[in-house]
Amino acid sequence: MIFTCRTFVPISPLLLNQLLPIKFVQQHQHLSQAKTNLTSLQSPVSLLPLPRFIASNSWWNWNWNSRRYCSGVVMASVNGVQDPQSISYLRQQEAAEIDEILMGPLGFSVDQLMELAGLSVATAIAEVYKPNEHNRVLAICGPGNNGGDGLVAARHLYHFGYKPYVCYPKRTPKPLYNCLVTQLESLSVPFLSVEDLPMDLSDSFDILIDAVFGFSFHGTPRPPFDDMIKKLVNLSNPDLRPSKSPAIVSVDIPSGWHVEEGDSSGDGIKPDMLVSLTAPKLCAKMFSGPHHFLGGRFVPPPIVEKFKLQLPAYPGTSMCVRIGKPPKVDISALRENYISPELLEEQVEADPFDQFQKWFDDAMAAGLKEPNAMSLSTAGSDRNLSSRMVLLKGFDKEGFVWYTNYESQKARDISENPRASLLFYWDALNRQVRIEGPVAKVSEAESEQYFHSRPRGSQIGAIASNQSSVIPNRQYLHQVYQDLEAKYSGLVLIPLLCRRGYLMILSHSQYLYFVLVKSLTSCFLL
Ligand SMILES: NC(=O)C1=CN([C@@H]2O[C@H](COP(=O)(O)OP(=O)(O)OC[C@H]3O[C@@H](n4cnc5c(N)ncnc54)[C@H](OP(=O)(O)O)[C@@H]3O)[C@@H](O)[C@H]2O)[C@H](O)CC1
Ligand SMILES: [K+]
Predict the structure, then answer these.
(1) Boundaries of each YjeF N-terminal domain copy (predicted)?
(2) Cβ proximity of 438 and 400 under 8 Å
């Protein structure tokens, strides 16, 4: 049995995209070795030690016919699963001091920070609890800024499609809080008094936001918050907890917990989710629920430096980042609520290319990331199928165009069997398009034009990359890249060399399927 371990070289993010196809291949003879590799790749970041890398993702596949495992590490802006041991935890005094510096010399206003904090809470909730399954949210808000975060989160959750309710028994008579209340009232968000709250919160709500106390909590809870916290404690007690109980989401601190010592008696709230703000407080070390997030993506370098903060990197444009691993899921239980509009025959264009253009435009308008990403499946003369993601680089009535090195595995497959299958999957639109047909090379002129339209680093990366071939190590690739950079430093146009190509065209479209996924009425074959 042969295992193939593939990994990408640690290079600058700029070059990363350009060198993504470059891999080095190591052969392993034993399954046990491959299992070891698999385990070590569970934390693939360790293979990418340079701090320039934000996060990484690993993939595995098993080719049944050749019984060959492949493992790999690809860079992506994925959710950073951050090691709870390696991040900073704040003492109560430090948290208060950071607040003061932010709102003093660093020029932030409390309104701003609260808005960002509440948005972080709402996005963390939306990441774990989908509004179609967890729609009714009760935000229990205390008298301080933690309560303000709850009010802001409730507003954002409304706009995310949830049905928020608010319990805000001790309103703070300051313009900021009055405005937050007015904003919620303008959305017709119901405000419930403590007396209005149902005895059993589990019947009426799917999510309870605990925004009662944050890092300024001290002593033991006083009325009316003592009873409210008791309700939350009962809900999180495994003996008293009803079978279907709402998820408890604590903002910054589980209310009632000591800010530094946590739930030392063990009688406190046991939230399912904790959203720490700015940096986790010491008590968060005792959090044992399944979802710990960090929010408050506003910490400027002076704070990081002064308090020597080790904070996880936020992925992409996200307002929150998960700390620790997500809980294991039962894959068979993963399901979406299949709600799609119907796709009726009279709605589709007679010409499949027009239909494709229409759906592609929709994908662009919806702001989907890389709507031109498609799975390309090929099979060589041995009939072994393989798929990989590539980018569509153009389409017209002649076909769909993408680029590849003519020495890659896909190109070898196509030279032996000039047919391919493309699949676009636009998840947010519940749509996919399948395209199947013959493949031909495009002209050299077109190929060359594309090559020279790429950024210079991509051109060099493409030449350096001898796809799907065995190379000794990462350093080799660095060296090849650097040598080529030096070689072409005086040249305006980098020559295309012999492995020019990078382009193939699907010239027929007799097999073009427009499929509405997650719907009963779905497939049109044009
Ligand atoms: N920099 C950031 O990360 C930001 C965090 N934000 C959020 O703000 C809170 C901290 O807010 P703060 O207003 O300082 O404090 P609290 O929300 O924890 O609550 C203070 C009020 O609670 C009362 N309190 C304290 N202890 C008790 C108790 N045992 N029983 C009843 N009431 C209590 C306190 O009253 P006192 O009379 O005791 O003073 C206050 O009225 C932080 O955790 C984040 O959630 C910002 O939103 C943005 C910046
Ligand atoms: K709280």
Answers:
(1) 95-311
(2) no
Q: Where are the domains of the chain?
A: 2-66+349-525, 83-324
Q: In the Cβ-directed half-sphere of 48, how many Cα atoms lie within 13 Å?
A: 27
Distance 213 CA to ligand 2 centre (A): 5
Q: Give this complex's ipTM.
A: 0.98
Separation of first and last alpha carbons in the chain: 43
Could you count the other beta carbons within 10 Å of the beta carbon of residue 304? 14
Question: Quick check: do 2-66+349-525 and 83-324 share a fold?
Answer: no
Pocket lined around ligand 1, Cβ cut-off 6 Å? 98-99, 102, 113-114, 117, 142-149, 213-222, 225, 251-253, 277-278, 296
Atom of ligand 1 nearest to the CA of 152: 47
Q: Are 53 and 32 in contact (CB under 8 A)?
A: no
Q: 194 Cβ partners below 8 Å, 6+ apart? A: 167, 169, 224, 227, 228
2-66+349-525: which CATH architecture?
Answer: Roll (2.30)
DSSP state letter for 497: -
Q: Is 381 annotated as a binding residue?
A: no
Closest to 89 (Cα-Cα) out of 285, 275, 258: 285
Spatial distance between the Cα atoms of 97 and 92, rounded to a whole number of angstroms: 9
Tell me the two tokens of residue 241.
């907890």
Reported as a single tens digit per residue, the pLDDT across 466-521 is 767 778 888 888 888 899 888 888 887 877 765 554 455 655 445 566 666 655 44
Instruction: Give residue 332 CA to ligand 2 midpoint distance, Å.
Output: 34
Q: 344-368: per-residue pLDDT in tens? A: 888 888 888 888 999 999 999 999 9
In DSSP terms, 164 is beta-bridged to 137
Cis before 300 (ω within 30): no
Alpha carbons 145 and 142: distance in angstroms, whole number: 8
Enter the tokens of residue 283: 């008590």
Joined together, the tokens standing for residue 14 give 């700029």
CATH code of 83-324, in short, is 3.40.50.10260
Q: 26: number of CA atoms within 13 Å, CB side?
A: 14
Q: Which atom of ligand 1 is nearest to the CA of 147?
A: 17
Across-strand partners of 72?
59
Task: Please give the Cα distance from 19 to 458 (Å, whole number).
Answer: 7
Backbone dihedral region for residue 518 (phi beyond 0: left; psi -120 to 50: alpha; all else: beta): left
Q: Which two tokens stand for residue 133?
A: 């399954």
Query: Distance between CA atoms of 306 and 492, rounded to whole angstroms?
Result: 46
Length, in residues, of the chain:
526
